[in-house]
Model the fold of this input.
Amino acid sequence: MGFLKTLLIIVLVYYLLKLLARWFAPKLFNYAARRTERHFKEAFGHMNMNAQEQNEEIGDITIDKNTTRKKDASNNVGEYIDFEEIE
Done:
C-alpha cells in the first residue's frame, strides 16, 4: 500500500507542477521580456541623448581631419636572395 501511495503522490505533484507552469510561465516570460525591453531602452536612450547634445542643425556638414601621419614603411627591408634547387 505504501508504494501505491508514493506513486499517487508523485503523479499528483507532477500534474500540479504542470498546471502551475501553465498559469505562471506566461507571466514569468512577460516579466522577463519587459525587463529586457527596459534594459535596451536605457542602453540606447543614452546614445540618443548624446546625439542630441551635439547641437548641430540638420544639413550642416562637418569634416574631421586626422592630422597625425602614419610612418611609411621603409623601402630598405633587407637583401633579396635568389635560391636555386640542387638536384
Notes: The radius of gyration is 35 Å. The chain is about 60% helix and 0% strand. The first helix runs from residue 2 to 52. The helical segments are 2-52.
